[in-house]
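[audit] Reproducing an earlier prediction to check determinism. Same input, same settings, fresh worker. If the tokens differ from the archived copy the diff job will pick it up downstream; this log only records the rerun itself.
[audit] input (661 residues):
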Amino acid sequence: MNISSPPRFGFPCVERVQLHDFSLYSREPNTRLALDSGVTCLAGANGIGKSTFLCTVNFALTGAIPEPSRDFLSAPAYFAKAKEYASTFFEGRINETDRDTAAVTVSFTVRKRQYSVKRALFSVGAIEELRICEDGVLVHNSEDATAEQNDEYYRADLCKAIGLNSFEQFVMLQHFLFTFDESRHLVFWDRPASAALLYVCFGGDPHDAARADHLNREMERAGSRGRNYQFQATNLTKRIDTLEASVKGTTENSLEGDQAEAKYRELTAAVDKATAESDEAEALVSEAELKVIDANAEVLNRRAAYEKAFERFMLGSATPDRHPLITSAIADCHCPVCRNDGEHVAQAIRARLEAKLCPICASTIQPTALDPAVSDQLSQLDLALAQAKRALDAATDAKARIERAAAAKREAVKSTREAMRVFEESNRAVLEGIQGRLALLDGPLAETLEAFRKARQDLSAQRDLAYAERDRFRDDLRSLQRNLEQKYIEAESQFVPKFKSLAKAFLGVDLDITLVTGGAIGLHLQIEMRGNARRKESQLSESQRFFVDIALRMALAQYVSDPDSRAMLFIDTPEGSLDIAYEDRAGQMFAEFVKSGHALLMTANINSSKLLTTLAKVCTSESMTLVQMTHWTELSDVQQRASDLFRDAFADINSALGASV
């Protein structure tokens, strides 16, 4: 098998973050933070604003905040929802006096392109300052542009630099794949989001990913329309049933009346059916008669053509002794020229013929040969005439059969009408009430019911069209899915070992991961532990779910990143879910990811967890920076009383880094 190259996208590597009047961090509202390659860990106490910092950096990059529920229908739909969430995210985090000036500036590099982006926290869809350079040369400066124009230019330029089809795809990757925040959203078990990510990460063609996203969205919309039409049709059915029941209640609802009405409707339907079938049979008789007429005309035409050709044959190639005048004169003993009669006439003609002389002019008779072409023509005409006769016989037989069937249908009409007459005579009293009720159905109520039935029919037709459209989108999507499945098979030898290595660093056991197709979404990744599939979140412990999901993100980031512009992961570390046996292993997993050349911006509580100390020992100060966020804001009374504990914890981590306390 030829191993295809993985898709290589260049992702932002954040180098600096500058906060402006960020009053949540009361002691450091204008914090400037440099992010070196490797791990940048923001450590501090609960409620100090660690998660907010990650969200703020994401806001600077994408103009949106990761939406907590992460409901995914499509990349554009999610981006719109995340921007709406961003419009209120900073409420309560920024003082009213700082509202107009609060902002964030982020500097990052994508391949050789350097970006500096400043966003006001309360201006969604706008960039106050934008500066883009490449190899030290200024590419774009926002001095003469509006904030909205800056945002539009930034989105187009960044999308091109990364190599994606749309900025919304970047937002999807940044929020769903590269960010593991306090919402603890798990990509492994979010099938719609997972499928969309797989198209980007393994499909290799961002256009296919966008098309799959579009097909998924349109398929869901068409299905939703179909369900809505069905709901409306069901409601109309209920209204029709109610009206029909109300009409039925205008007469006595006796068993006799119900049975008589049922029989009356049955007989009426039988008469209508028999009449319709008889009319159809009469039409078939007329058609059969026309076919007989046409077939007979064809026979006459074929016979005339044959007789004409035969006459030409006889006149053009026959010898004198076979000429009609000669054969007649011999047979009748009568000369057609001089009108003499007698045996001597026949004897004289025979004598000249025996002498090879013409009986009329006494010229010598020259021998003649039959013309093969004329003979062939006669054979063909004879065959055509035989076929025409067979067609006439078949048409005649069909006409007779159809006439018999039509006669039977006419008898059926007579018998059903007679049955109706007998029933009406025998049940006249009951039928008077039924016919009175049925008369109501011929007025406005009938028009209302008919309108309802027509509307229901139209809704049913629209429902069927919507479901057919949904199925067409699904067929197109399945074609893309099959292509993606093949791409994943080709990628397994490179991607799966990355994931298994990271997951084993945490779990200590081998995991298998496969691409599963089928179901409403069509495909998703599935893990197996010790030979058993883990299809549901509940089949793993909380810490296993969290860190296996982080391992998946890390492996995908490694697989799709351009070596010159590797993706940075944002992780709000869920160390609270770990028991003591896994704290060290989680640190090992994080360290392995960083060793592969990827940066990690993470947050962690200051506690006795071994995760940070293990990470620090492996990375050392060369690949890890510890940021003490306890200096950024005022601590609570409880946290202040525990300041010695915080100081000791920081000292342990710094010691593990090999730095001075």
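[audit] rerun output stored. Observation attached for the diff report: Residues 13-164+565-649 form a domain with the Rossmann fold fold (CATH 3.40.50).
[audit] end
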